[in-house]
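Data follows
____________
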Amino acid sequence: MLHGDMQTTDLWRSDNKIGIDGGAVFGGSIHGVIFDEQGIVQDIEYQNNQGPWQPDF
């Protein structure tokens, strides 16, 4: 699911699922996540500083 509201850029965990979509296409962030056997070790978040994606057509 792509987040278009820009209020949900954080990682989330629910019902044995992990959401890493920060809505980068809408100007949000993209996540790189490092896991080990115990779970999430590090969340590396890159903020999109160029704004929302605009198609060329």
